[in-house]
Amino acid sequence: MADTPHFYIILNQVAGTGQAQKIWPQIETALKQRGISYELQISSYPGHTTRIAYQFARFKRTNQVLLIVGGDGTLNQAINGVQSAGKHDIPIAYLPCGSGNDFARGIGLNSDPLQALEQILAATAPVNIDLGVYHDALKNETGYFVNNVGIGFDASVVSITNNSKSKRFLNKCHLGSLSYVFSLIQAFTSQDAFQVTVKANGSVKNFSRGFLVTTTNHPYFGSGVPIMPSARVDDQKLDLVVIEKLNVFFFCYLFIMMLMGKHTRYKTVHHFRTDDLVIRTQTLEFGQVDGEEMGSRAFDMHFKVTSQPFWLTTTKTEQFK
Questions:
Q1: CA distance 103 to 99
Q2: Helix and strand tally (H, E) in the chain?
Q3: In terms of Cα–Cα distance, which of 122, 102, 99, 132 is closest to 314?
Q4: What is the extent of the structural domain holding 92?
Q5: 46 Cβ contact partners less than 8 Å away, ≥ 6 residues apart
Q6: What whole-number distance in Å separates Cα of residue 288 and Cα of residue 281?
Q7: Is residue 315 part of a domain?
Q8: pLDDT tens track for 274-289
Q9: Residues 71 and 140 in one domain
Q10: Closest among 4, 15, 36, 11 to 25, alpha carbons compared
């Protein structure tokens, strides 16, 4: 794409508890001032973004970019819509307007939507970024993710946070990260240890006291917590972190070490880096994908890696090429 592309925009107005809706007039003004060609679609109900993205992918014209204005969950829906249409070469751009915005952190995209817009408009060609792909044999379900898939503790945190009355208030005060902190305490007391089987790199490992089981595409989860600092979105690998059940004191200590990126040195933390991964549980556990709830269920998940063209330029863009 040599010329400035036409942007097909999907806006999720409720992302970030209304933050996307508030910032949109400024984004629209910036686009008009630049003379940027665009078309706007509003995502108005759960799953609507997936349907809009699917239809766009099927009938996309040349020199078009799909621009998502919303949170990581909105981006997840859009990518699943595009990928399910069988169109793997459609460039996607993203303005982070959610409460977590971990994907933006992971790729070096500014968390300020207006600054992120400048990074998008400065791009001259798409760059390929890894996506995780999973298939759950128990539900015959396939999906794509940009951040991570979690089973156990982090998914319990997501469930509690998403159903928390305080989340809306904290987001309005730009303190959305605090909602995760409050949920951490409640999730720790309610999440039991569980058995999990991991098949990776030609070997099988069984853990009898699984607690946090997170497959990640980049370093961050939970609104900026570096669960795997060395994870990259350009290595065609996924990183799995398994943390065993701990007592409350060591858990608090380990969480502090995680914030510092030093938790992987401890024997209760297990790390796998692979392009082909299987995770199985037998008990009913909470699951989450890109911050969206998967419900409480058993899992038999096979993970692989694919890629998605993104329209942006960041400090990390060169390493994606």
A1: 11
A2: 10, 17
A3: 122
A4: 6-125
A5: none
A6: 14
A7: no
A8: 999 999 999 999 999 9
A9: no
A10: 11
In a domain, 1, yes or no: no
Q: What tens digit of pLDDT does each residue of 44-95 get?
A: 999 999 999 999 999 888 889 999 999 999 999 999 999 999 988 999 999 9
Same domain, 72 and 47: yes
Residue bearing tokens 């999720």:
12
The whole-model pTM stands at: 0.91
Q: How far is CA 304 from CA 47, 87, 176, 270, in A?
A: 24, 18, 31, 19
CA–CA gap between residue 70 and residue 60 (Å, rounded)? 21
Q: Tell me the C-alpha distance between 152 and 156, whole Å.
A: 6
Question: In the chain, which stretches have pLDDT less than 70?
Answer: 1-2, 164-181, 315-321
Q: What share of the chain is helix, strand, coil (3-state, %, to 5)?
A: 35, 35, 30
CATH of the domain at 117: 3.40.50.10330
Q: What is the CATH number of the domain that holds 208?
A: 2.60.200.40
Find the length of the chain: 321
**The pair of three-digit structure tokens given for residue 247, joined into one six-digit string:** 């007592």
**What is 24-85 written as a DSSP string?**
HHHHHHHHHHHT--EEEEEE-STTHHHHHHHHHHHHPPTTEEEEEEE-HHHHHHHHHHHHHT
Total structural domains within the chain: 2
Position of tokens 């595409």?
217
